[in-house]
Design goal:
It is a single chain. The chain is mostly helical and about 210 residues long. The chain contains 11 helices and 6 strands. The longest helix is centred in the middle third of the chain and has 15 residues. The termini are far apart.
């Protein structure tokens, strides 16, 4: 008998590595209205001292399509008096250029209240000497999302929601998948299509628009 696997909520079958099955989170991107709702919830439900930090975390993640691990490891010098900067991605080890024109307000608002020592300080410090953690980022946005009471938003939220929203918006606005793939430092366009959940969408569009003959 073929072995069956229990699929956790919001997840799909992933690769089997050794004796373990690795679950892959379903593609979940935010609509503009959902993002606005999340931002308003951050303003309303974050601790007053953390509102500007939380807004900047989300703004950087979404507007540059970053993984959470690359957001939390930024330093003050990466954004201070700059319009762009280069980082080395934590996961891939590849160089990525980030642009700050799309979140300058959030950067300036945050730095105006952050009493850092020098440019080498973590942009998002943790409770100890290190930087804010990926898990902490995840817990924060999940808690804030739950405050909205919007089940659709709650069920799709996660640190990758912002990266996927970035890619999906580019795709929806006509950006070629090859360019999105390069921005994401993916190994192939197929990986990007799968990541954004547009494989089936493209297949459906081809078939829906097909008619043989006249």
């Amino acid at each position: 008998m073929k072995k069956t696997y229990y699929v956790p909520k919001n997840k799909q079958n992933g690769q089997i590595k050794g004796n373990r099955r690795i679950w892959v989170v379903n593609v979940k991107y935010l609509t503009p209205d959902e993002y606005k709702e999340l931002v308003e919830s951050i303003k309303e439900h974050s601790q007053s001292a953390l509102v500007k930090r939380n807004l900047l975390l989300v703004a950087i993640a979404l507007n540059n399509g970053l993984r959470a691990s690359d957001v939390v490891t930024l330093r003050v010098g990466d954004v201070l008096n700059k319009t762009s900067t280069k980082i080395i991605e934590q996961k891939t080890g590849k160089v990525k250029r980030l642009y700050w024109n799309n979140c300058l307000k959030e950067i300036n608002d945050y730095l105006a209240t952050y009493h850092y020592n020098d440019e080498n300080d973590w942009l998002f410090p943790g409770s100890k000497d290190g930087h804010f953690s990926v898990h902490g980022f995840y817990q924060m946005i999940v808690r804030i999302a739950r405050k909205t009471g919007n089940e659709a938003l709650i069920n799709k939220i996660g640190t990758h929601s912002f990266r996927k929203t970035f890619g999906h918006e580019l795709y929806k606005n006509g950006t070629d998948v090859e360019i999105i793939s390069q921005l994401f430092n993916h190994s192939s366009q197929r990986v990007t299509r799968h990541y954004l959940g547009i494989e089936q969408e493209d297949l459906d569009n081809v078939v829906a628009g097909f008619k043989f003959g006249v």
